[in-house]
Amino acid sequence: MGKQGELKERLATLDEIGGIMNAMKNLALLETHKLAVFLDTQRRAVTSIEAAAQDFLGFYSHIYSLPDALQQIWIVIGSERGFCGDFNDALVQYLNVSAPKEGTLLLAVGSGLETKLHQVARIAAFVKSHSVVEEVQATLLHLVEVLNKMQQLEPERIACIKALYYDDESGQIMLRQLLPLAAPKLKSAYAHPPLLNLEPEQVLSHLTDQYLYAALHEVFYSSLMVENHMRLEHMNRAIHRLEKDVAGLRLRYNRLRQEEIIEEIEIIMLSAEALIATDKSGSKIT
Question: Is 65 a residue whose pLDDT tops 90?
């Protein structure tokens, strides 16, 4: 295969890669639109639960006690797919700098983190993550199963659950405490405690479970939003570089094609001159 054929084949390959990149970019853009709706709804739900918790704990804080030996669990939310820049690398760097060496267990969510943290001793479990917003529910159910198993093994030690993730509003990595629920900072505005249909301990248990479930939804949506924004930026840069490479290759291909055409014309002209010379020499002989 000549140089022109090689360039033509390479151009076809790059065009195919460009089509795949554009498809990935469009999918990421579609996810950001869906997530914007999900996040807005979920944040309102979490805010309502937090307000109810503040009202409840303002009158029943005496039933809220923590164990003496505190064991933290950090849920580190990475990505399942690649092509999102340094999304996972930045989380690993944050862990190396800020995560306490003692008294902290890590739950890594996402295959992108698993490849980077598989030899870290503090990893209690790896959880497969989601690629699109519709898969968040399955990830969350799996994560809750892992948390329940850990709490059954050491119920008296686990006292704090935090999430390490990307916050979509700031675009930065955030460490957020999910449990225990934050104690009220101000005195309740109500003079009388809320009316309960259950015992306060039961209300606290249900409230805690509901808050953790809702807050984890918000955290996953936020992380996935940033992941897709970073994937969009990554794809845009890659497509821009690809377009420059394709433009350069097309110039080389056109130049080679032009040279081949010129060579073909020169061969035709030489052949024509040779035929004319042959005809003239033949005429003189006769």
Answer: no
Half-sphere exposure of 260 (CA within 13 A, CB side): 10
Which single residue is written with the structure tokens 């030996």?
Answer: 69
Which pTM was predicted? 0.84
| 33 burial type by CB count under 10 A (0-12 exposed, 13-18 middle, 19+ buried) | exposed
Question: How far apart, in whole angstroms, are the C-alpha atoms of residue 230 and residue 8?
Answer: 32
Please report, for the chain, the start and end positions of each structural domain, with discontinuous segments joined by +: 23-185+196-235
Is the dihedral angle over the CA atoms 237, 243, 245, 248 positive or is it negative? Answer: negative
In this prediction, residues 78-94 reach a mean pLDDT of 93
Selected from 1.10.3720.10, 3.20.20.140, 3.30.390.10, 3.40.1380.10, the CATH number assigned to the domain covering 23-185+196-235 reads 3.40.1380.10
What 8-state DSSP symbol labels residue 101?
Answer: S
57 sits in which H/E element? helix 3-60
Q: What is the pLDDT of residue 263?
A: 83
